[in-house]
């Protein structure tokens, strides 16, 4: 598929303590820098899955921004429509992880994403040509999310990003004319904030180690997480979202959930925000559709 992703791109500074993290104290551990941002991570994972990706973002106007832009080029993400923000508009994320790889806290400086306005975006979308799906993360401004809801003519996927950013989706839906999009991906905190959101065909709720809940219409489906060895949980939700998108709008929720959970497992077992040491050739996987209990063979 050819997919357009609109969202944040930043440098991820990941700090992991060697032993149980002690708040308020200096914890011995390791620190490394990798490219991140929800939109960028989703785009990178989609490329690894074999999709053609056009990414629309504003890179930070500093060394972090240049580092992130170069990472996209190396990952074969099309950034020909992207620009750099004004100097001083930073885009970076600091994650502090416990010794088990789970995040205990983080700080996001996403000022560059504020420049992704409808006025900046509209002429670029006119030049895109045909795409099969649009994806956005909630790092972008509310009015831009509303613009995309109303102006995308293909399946539109939205990632809630965080509890603080999830409210943007409610505001954008209220602002939009269409008030409808195809798929929302969120975690439990974000889902609580968006509990009364209407107009979404499919809602994928990450439950962490408890798996994935999918709401479609009046029905809920629960899919267990795949067993894995946690190295770094940062980026797992982005990999999950990429798998859901890669499955395509015609996929059943069981197929989309299965591919998404497999991508999340793959990412959790890597120290990087995006696990680059894999390809889309997973072979033939078995998916149990909880509607008809038929085992379906998936190849992707």
Mean pLDDT: 89
Distance between the termini: 12 Å
Most strands sheet: 8 strands, mixed
Report the sheet-strand fraction: 25-35%
Spans of 5+ residues with little confidence (pLDDT < 50)? Answer: 281-300
Helix percentage range: 25-40%
> Radius of gyration over alpha carbons?
18 Å
What oligomeric arrangement do these chains adopt? single chain
CATH architecture: 3-Layer(aba) Sandwich
Q: Fill in the CATH topology.
A: UDP-N-acetylmuramoyl-L-alanine:D-glutamate ligase
The rough form would be described as globular
Order of adjacent strands in the largest pleated sheet: 4-1-9-10-11-12-13-14
Instruction: Give the structural class.
Output: alpha/beta
Q: Into how many domains do the coordinates divide? A: 1
The secondary-structure element order is: EEEHEEHEEEHEHEHEHEEEHHEE
The count of DSSP E runs of length 2 or more, i.e. the number of strands, is 16
User: What is the count of helical runs?
Assistant: 8
CATH superfamily membership, which one?
Answer: Ribokinase
Give the CATH class.
Alpha Beta
